[in-house]
Design goal:
Blueprint lengths: L1 H20 L3 E9 L3 H9 L2 H9 L4 E8 L7 E6 L5 E10 L4 E9 L6 E14 L2 E12 L13 H16 L3
Antiparallel strand pairs: 1-7, 2-3, 3-4, 4-5, 5-6, 6-7
Helix pairs in contact: 3-4
Length: 175
């Protein structure tokens, strides 16, 4: 059992470090939220933000499907978009409760479908005060050499919209 866990950790770490060793370009969005970082992290840590965003953006997201896992490291999530049934699949590769960081590696769809070789999505929940924090959403990506002239980029708008949805939801339900 220990060997299996060690091997899985090695694979996940290798994928993450391999992607980091490439020269990644980044698109970043930051949003201040007037809610404590722990409450925001609870929404982002597992599947909550994906499900909430899908509920609120029914005109954009047709379906969120958990292909494997329970929201922890190793979870595979597929988002199907409307119209046209294009989709994006990712695997959660890092969840750090202490630092409030979640990282997912794109497996198919997204910018991978238009010429990117790597797509890494990262969420950082950064505490400012006891009652406020910043949601930082970042997409790191690398472009395949043969597609560089086209300059394909991932779309940060969905992550920015998810942060706005989280803000409205959490601020309106303050205790």
């Amino acid at each position: 059992m220990l060997k299996q866990v060690s091997f899985i950790f090695f694979l996940v770490f290798s994928c993450y470090k391999g992607a980091e060793s490439q020269e990644l370009k980044h698109l970043t969005n930051e949003l201040q939220v007037n809610v404590g970082a722990n409450r925001v992290w609870e929404l982002y840590r597992h599947l909550g933000i994906s499900r909430l965003t899908a509920q609120q953006l029914k005109n954009v997201i047709q379906n969120v499907q958990v292909l494997e896992g329970d929201g922890g490291v190793g979870t595979m999530l597929k988002l199907t978009f409307v119209p046209g049934n294009s989709s994006y699949t990712e695997r959660f590769i890092v969840i750090n409760d202490e630092k409030k960081v979640k990282v997912a590696k794109g497996l198919e769809g997204g910018c991978l479908a238009i010429g990117c070789s790597v797509q890494i999505v990262r969420f950082d929940i950064i505490e400012k005060t006891k009652d406020s924090c910043i949601i930082r959403s970042d997409i790191g990506y690398a472009v395949k050499k043969e597609f560089e002239a086209n300059d394909p980029k991932p779309n940060i708008q969905l992550l920015a919209a998810a942060a706005q949805i989280a803000k409205r939801f959490l601020e309106s339900s303050k205790k």
